[in-house]
Design a protein that fits this description.
Elements lengths: L1 H9 L2 H46 L11
Protein name: Flp family type IVb pilin
Keywords: Membrane, Transmembrane, Transmembrane helix
């Protein structure tokens, strides 16, 4: 019985699996944060371009929003 406990105490495969799980979770979090930031920036850019195109079609001056580049 003591051999079973000794072998269990030396087994580190569970700890390794947990470490890999934590690394995967951190990578996923970084991807989500990056996609959120990029998505917001792309949305702003498309809204700016859309405003410019709409103003060109109607012949009015577009509002001064967005950075245009």
């Amino acid at each position: 019985m003591s051999k079973i406990f000794a072998r269990f105490a030396k087994d580190e495969s569970g700890a390794t699996a947990i470490e890999y799980g934590l690394i995967a979770a951190l990578i996923a979090l970084a991807i989500v944060a990056g996609a959120t930031t990029l998505g917001g920036s792309l949305s702003n850019q498309f809204n700016y371009v859309s405003g410019k195109l709409n103003a060109t079609q109607t012949g009015t001056t577009p509002p001064a929003t967005g950075n245009g580049g």
